[in-house]
Design a protein that fits this description.
Length: 177
């Protein structure tokens, strides 16, 4: 899917690339940050990763023009940036992700928070690759082909990894309950 209008595709020094990048940030920046938060479990680190992805896209845009799919380019950059940031991280302190809770009774809100904490805890218990495919599939709603492109693996690998991840999540959640 192409999110850029033809005049913006030219990019370069005319400001078109800046306008296009700004539009991409408005459309996808928040979702990319939330994705990075789910992968890194650190709000600040997630914002840095997304900022670096947009800077990388800008550099690429100025050198070679826009990629075929800027959204896919950014998504792949964010996933890879999260991997790199986690590898470089020396302190394992992770910030808690704050999720908005719909207005409900205090009891319902407490149960929802408890369920969210259990799911996030189980998600943390998955190996990195399994956690990535779960986030990309069920949070971003990507299909196997899009996940494969983002992670640089085959569609078959995505399918089998999702299957293993769901089995592992079910076991982890049964163990918590």
């Amino acid at each position: 899917m192409d999110f850029l209008s033809p005049p913006l595709k030219r990019g370069g020094a005319d400001g078109g690339s800046q306008a296009a990048l700004s539009a991409l940030f408005q459309m996808h920046g928040g979702q990319l940050v939330r994705t990075a938060v789910l992968l890194t479990r650190d709000d600040g680190l997630a914002e840095e990763v997304v900022q670096e992805a947009f800077l990388g896209l800008q550099r690429r845009w100025l050198r070679k023009g826009p990629p075929e799919s800027p959204e896919a380019y950014l998504r792949t950059s964010v996933v890879n940036g999260c991997r790199s940031a986690l590898r470089r991280r020396t302190v394992a302190a992770r910030a808690k992700v704050v999720h908005p809770v719909p207005e409900a009774s205090a009891e319902a809100s407490a149960l929802l928070r408890e369920e969210q904490a259990q799911v996030l805890g189980a998600l943390d218990g998955l190996p990195r690759r399994q956690r990535e495919v779960v986030v990309l599939r069920f949070y971003l709603g990507l299909d196997d082909q899009e996940i494969a492109a983002a992670l640089g693996v085959s569609r078959g690998t995505v399918s089998s990894t999702i299957s293993r991840a769901l089995r592992s999540l079910a076991e982890l959640l049964r163990g918590q309950g």
